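Worked example 3. Consider a protein that binds fe (ii) ion.
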Amino acid sequence: MNCASWIEHFTRNKQNRPEPDWAALINVPPAVLKPMLRSVEQFRLGDGGGPASLIAYNAESFRSRTAEMRKIVDLWFAEEAEHARLLGCAVKRFGGRIITSHWSFMAFCFCRRVLGVKFELQVLTLTELVSTAYYRLLRNHSPDGPLAAMCELILRDESGHVAFQRDRLAAAGCPRPELRGLLWRIQFLLLGYAAGTMLWINHAPCLKAIGGSRGEFYSGVTRQLMRFVRSLRRVPKTAGVPALWAKPANLQLERAN
Ligand SMILES: [Fe+2]
Ligand SMILES: [Fe+2]
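Given these inputs, the predicted complex is written out as structure tokens:
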């Protein structure tokens, strides 16, 4: 795995990040604003608003593999913390509150802690894939310009995170050939749909209120999961940052996917 190219990617991705115009006039009907705010409040907690680091009991075994990997993990989680900041600005804009705990987030952190870093990395990868489906829906249907601009920034980062996870897994020889690989893919997809369903249960009122649908959400989840699993076959072990992510950071990056 080409760690240097990932450090370069994360460093370059800090540039050219236009801040959404949080002071712009709000023109969202109350019936839409209420569920949307609730959803954004929860997402702020889940997307970098909690512990912005690996928290598995054995996380250090992954972080300390090399000095470069430690740096990459720090840069990755710095972007997650930035997502929480952006979502916090949206919460403030709509007059919401910063929540610090929720049952689904506590369950999420508990699983990450006790099941080990390998499982935690898989859970985070799946979360990034299903969150991408959520942010795309929110961006495409957003009744608020600054909120859509925020989604665009987060999607740009998440596309890099997903590519990093793919590179990391491929470098570790995953998925293995034949039956073990098939079983790995099946468990990955099942857990992915479970993560997507958790997200849908919590955020459906918002996504429906802005004009999204269950079918649209699940087809987004399917697209993300299948593309990720298929792409693992094609990544050479020393891939580094794919050409798409090696381009200068710009807001069209995610749309290009
Ligand atoms: Fe994030
Ligand atoms: Fe992420």
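Take a moment to read the result before moving on. Residues 29-246 form a domain with the Ferritin fold (CATH 1.20.1260). The longest helix spans residues 178-209.
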